[in-house]
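User: I'm preparing a small set of examples for a lab meeting where we compare how different chains pack in three dimensions. I only have the primary sequence for this one, and I'd like the structure in token form so I can line it up with the others. Please keep the answer compact; I'll paste it straight into my notes.
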Amino acid sequence: ETVFAIERKTVSDLVQSVTFERSRFFREMERLSGYQFKRLLIVGSRREIEAGLYRSRTTPKAVLASIATIEARFDVPAIFVSDATEAAAIIETWAHYWTREQIKAGDQLLTDNGQEN
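Assistant: Understood. Below is the structure token output for the 117-residue chain.
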């Protein structure tokens, strides 16, 4: 819980977060940037944003610029998935492979220190 974190947002949640709750959300992104593995997982598509298919007067350009800012400023990759099922599957995949790599790194550290044959 201190090294692996994912912030999951629907498109409408994201729009709300980058507009009316921007200060709070950017503080969350700053905290998230400290994790070894971090992602902003957006349930919905970039096309939804480009078409303005959300309840806000915020322009699609402004929402997409906010996503780019998050990626650049906080080094938090933004990933789009089609639905909650795909979101769950990708989170499970990330957790599996990230954990596997951590175990490998730990094993390699033991080998490098001569504690294992």
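A couple of notes for your slides: The longest strand covers residues 4-10. Residues 6 and 39 are 5 Å apart (CA to CA).

User: Perfect, thanks.
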